[in-house]
Each structure stands twice: as structure tokens, then as C-alpha cells.
Amino acid sequence: MTKKISLAIVLLFCICCLADSAFAQSISLNVGDSPTTGSTTARIFNVIMMITVLSVAPSILIMMTSFTRVVVVLSITRSALGTNSTPPNMVLISLALFLSMFIMAPTFEKAWDEGLEPMFEEKLDTMEGLEKASVPFKEFMVKNTREKDLLLFQNLSQEKPQKIEETPLKVAIPAFMISELRRAFEIGFLIYIPFLIIDMVIASILMSMGMMMLPPTVLAMPFKIIFFVLIDGWYMLAGSLINSFH
């Protein structure tokens, strides 16, 4: 499972390099004149792509997976709690990463089975394997993108795909990202309201008692924390984020 997910991430960078089929067909590597030239060329090309993806994997993860929505919601939740840097960024990003891997696991497995595995077993050539492996990611992005956002970039690019498989990545990726940001802020707004009410109640109590010099946020923080613990906030938040993609 871990191997499949790790190798599936490799395809994300490769997909972004495929501007169109004509460009893909223009790539040609020649390694000697032996009968095994094609096999050697494919292996070299795969190794180059794997090495390259190590430096850009974080950006790819952000662009084409559920990571954006998850990490933004977690960050807004921390701000609503008023705990500043607690949990630290490393903890939030790690949690967002593993939640994203859980959400994206079916997509990674489908991309592996349909494109990457046949490509590594040399049943498909490199470009054909990457094209087939990109389809599950396009399906995931289009499924979780507002039609309005998708139409915006389709109109700007003057491309009208009839099927999901025909949707170019230059349209699917930006539409998916702005749609994810919108949904993340919608979820964050709903999370923020209960904590804002607690702040208002504490501020009203302090004002009625004449304690104007005591910052309401300082006194409200423990109440917000215990409220979040009592409602089992992390459980509810993780479950809601995962279910929002189904």
C-alpha cells in the first residue's frame, strides 16, 4: 500500500510536464543500437523523472490532492482557538498530510493499477502509462470542483472537453485549487462561529464587571480549549474533512 502511494505520487510531476500529446511524441532518447535500446531508454527516462520529482513533490501534493482544503481548515481551527503556534506548524502539516493520503488512497491505487504498474512492467510505454495514470487524478479534481470554477478556466483557455479524460491539466488544476480554497473557507467560517460566541460572552461578562484592563482573549482561551475537548473536536474535524470528499 505504502509503495503504491509513494510511486503514485511520482506520476504527478510527470503529468505536469505533459503539455500535450504532440510534445510527448517529440521526446526521443537514443541509447546505443542494441536490441534492448527501447527498454534501456524507458528505464533511464523513469529514473530521471523519479529524481526530479523529489524536489517538487510538495508543490504537486498541494496542487492535485486534498491537502489544500485540509491544511487551511486546520489552520483556521487553530486561529479560532487562539492558541497561536499550538499545535505547531509541523504537527498541523503532518496531520494534513496523512489525512490527505487517507483520502487520496483510492485514487493512488487506481492510478497505480491502470497506469504506473503496467508502465513499470513495460506493458505500456512511458507516455501512455502516464496518460492512463493521470485519469484518476482528473476524475478526483473534476468531481471536487465547482462547475462555475471549471467553466471559468475552460472559457479562458477556449477548450470544451466532452469527457473528464479530455480535460487538460492546465484547466483542471487551477479550477480545483480555487474551488478547494472556497470550500476550506466555508468550513472554517462554520468552525469559527462557536469560538467567536465564547469570546463575545467573556468580553460582555468582563465589561459588566468593570474589568476593562483584562484582555478577553486571554480569559476566553481556556474555555475555548475545554469546549473543543468536550465536543471531541479533533475527531469531528477529521471525520468531517474526510467525509467532505465522498
Features:
0% strand; 78% helix; single chain; 246 residues; elongated; mainly alpha
**Count of helix runs:** 10
List SSEs in N-to-C order: HHHHHHHHHH
Tell me about the largest β-sheet.
none
Overall pLDDT score: 78
Number of strands: 0
Helix content: over 70%
**Termini Cα gap:** 21 Å
Ranges where pLDDT stays below 50 over 5 or more residues in a row are 10-37
* Approximate strand percentage: under 5%
Computed over alpha carbons, the radius of gyration is 23 Å
SS class: mainly alpha
Describe the protein.
There is one protein chain. By secondary structure, the chain is an all-alpha fold. 78% of the residues lie in helices and 0% in strands. It is built from ten helices and no strands. It has helices at residues 2-16, 21-26, 37-64, 67-81, 89-120, 126-143, 147-157, 169-208, 216-230, 233-243. Helix 1 packs across helix 6 and helix 7 packs across helix 8. The radius of gyration is 23 Å and the shape is elongated. 26% of the residues are buried. The model is unreliable at 10-37 (pLDDT under 50).
Question: What is the fold's blueprint, element by element?
Answer:
Layout lengths: L1 H15 L4 H6 L10 H28 L2 H15 L7 H32 L5 H18 L3 H11 L11 H40 L7 H15 L2 H11 L3
How would you summarize what this structure contains?
With 246 residues, the protein is mainly α. The chain is built from ten helices and no strands.
